[in-house]
């Protein structure tokens, strides 16, 4: 596991939270897994659209390390690996939904209205 | 203003929201301005700790562009410039507080308990 040389300057639980599920890819992975419940790597990659394997693998590793996502490997031939949200991961959903609702108010004004409703997750703008 | 060559793949208001206030620096700037209300650049830089001018200036530009922060310039000698949260910026605070509360539950288990309460902003872990 990659370890940064300098201790990160985490000042507040907020920053810890942002690190856990912030950013484009992590939040999208969580949303997609919330909708689909269980996905194999290739399915997850298809859902993500436009992500490289390196970026997706790094985001997954961090999410697993931080216990947001669990990776279950079945000893079959060929081996099967499935990803899903942990309980901690599920508890992030209301927060993401709150951000989504907030952003929807402004997104509506500033962006294409057709995109107001998420096409991939089940979040609905009120 | 810097414009990326490729249209960003924003799929959902959530991702728009994450872009607006996500990440370490933007959320910290918003928290600090929420606590201090109005700050000059040098004061803000001091509050941020360990940030380079390039990083802080870029984050500020984006926050101003997205109407989270307002920059008011007074025509005095020497000129005075002040930064504060807009109404839109203030509406982000409950979201950050929600993330802070959520993260506090896990931060408590996983990190130094002395850091459980933010030293810089007014967020309190329940």
Task: Please give a structural write-up.
The structure is a homodimer of 126-residue chains. Chain A is mainly α and 126 residues long. The first copy, chain A, has a domain at 13-88: Winged helix-like DNA-binding domain superfamily/Winged helix DNA-binding domain (Arc Repressor Mutant, subunit A). Helices cover 52% and strands 12% of the residues of chain A. Chain A contains six helices and three strands; from the N terminus they run ααβααββαα. In chain A, strands 1-3-2 form a three-stranded antiparallel β-sheet. In chain A, strand 2 and strand 3 (80-85) form a beta hairpin. The radius of gyration of chain A is 16 Å and the shape is globular. The termini of chain A are far apart. Chain A binds chain B through residues 9-20, 22-24, 27-28, 31, 49-50, 88, 91-92, 95-96, 98-104, 106-107, 111, 115-116, 118-121, 123, 125, and chain B through 9-20, 22-24, 27-28, 31, 49-50, 88, 91-92, 95-96, 98-104, 106-107, 111, 115-116, 118-121, 123, 125.
């Amino acid at each position: 596991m990659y370890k940064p040389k300098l201790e990160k300057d985490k000042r507040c639980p907020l920053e810890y939270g942002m690190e856990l599920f912030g950013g484009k890819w992590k939040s999208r992975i969580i949303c997609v897994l919330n909708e689909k419940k269980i996905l194999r790597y290739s399915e997850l990659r298809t859902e993500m659209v436009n992500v490289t394997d390196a970026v997706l693998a790094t985001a997954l590793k961090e999410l697993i390390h931080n216990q947001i996502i669990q990776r279950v490997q079945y000893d079959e031939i060929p081996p099967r690996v499935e990803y899903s949200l942990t309980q901690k991961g599920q508890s992030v959903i209301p927060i993401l939904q709150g951000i989504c609702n907030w952003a929807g108010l402004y997104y509506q004004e500033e962006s294409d209205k057709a995109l107001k409703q998420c096409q991939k997750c089940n979040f609905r703008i009120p």
